[in-house]
Structure formats: C-alpha cells, structure tokens
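pipeline: protein-struct stage 2 | run 1193 | P2 phage tail completion protein R (GpR)
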Amino acid sequence: MKKLHLLRAHLINAVPGLARDPDKLLTFVEEGSIEFRRGPNLTHEYQFTAQLVLTDFADDLDTLMVPLLQWLAEYQPDADPNEAVRFEAEILSHNAVDVALRVQLTERVLAKVNCDTGHIQVDHALPRFETTGCPPPRWQMYTRDTQANADYTLAAEWGAQGETDDGE
C-alpha cells in the first residue's frame, strides 16, 4: 500500500501543522479488499479505505483539503467525486479539532510469474497524472476571510510531489 505512504508524506510536506508535528497524523487502513483474476499471473489490485486522523488540528481546514484534493487529482483521478473523501470532526476547543478523513484508494500490483526461473517480479503501478501543463516547483496557498473583507494571506506552502523541504 505504497499510495498511503505517498499520501502521508505529501500531507506532512504540505500542511503546516503536520510539517511541525508529523505525529499528529495517524494513518489506518479499513475495509480493504484485493481484486484479482484467476490465471497464470498474480497481478492484483488493493482497494481500501484509508483513514487519516489529524489530532489537535489548529490550522484552517483548507490547508488540509486543498493538498489532499491536489494529491487525489494526480494519483487517484478516477475516484468518484461523491465517494472519494468523507470526514468527521470533533471540536476540541475554539481553535482545535480532531479530524478523521476516509479516502477511497486503489493500487494496482503487477506480479509477473516466470515459470522457467521460478521468479515472480512485483511492481506497484503508481501512475501520476499531471493536473497542470507546467506545475511550479513550490505551491503556495492563500486564504482570506471574506466576511472581514481582508486581503489574502499565506496559509500553506509545499514542494511539488517528490520534492523535500530542502529542494531535492
């Protein structure tokens, strides 16, 4: 389930509160199944609900949802928009919540059997679908309080997929 690891790393990189304290993001798999076909190869697909729990989350919820939706557009573009993400929240205080997300994911595993050598070669198919023609090296998300008629303020910043904070 390499997609869940990729999603976790992306959120830790993108969400300011998680970048400061990654232990506030708990990840689980629930309702998992494996789809396969009978035959000589062992290719299969994981289908599961990833549960991501953010504890004591004090950032704007958009700083979580926008990077999540960006990741889904690139790694799970065939997700049903009505079913892909579900969430619950428990209000802890005026500025902190626990948020539980349920994200529907699939991951194809290519397992090729070579009967002559007795080898099975396994590859996880993790295609990435570019969502823009020229993605910038870093993303910056700006929000504003429209009720206060305020200007946009920087709420979150993160590197492109696969980039670390030091630019590599």
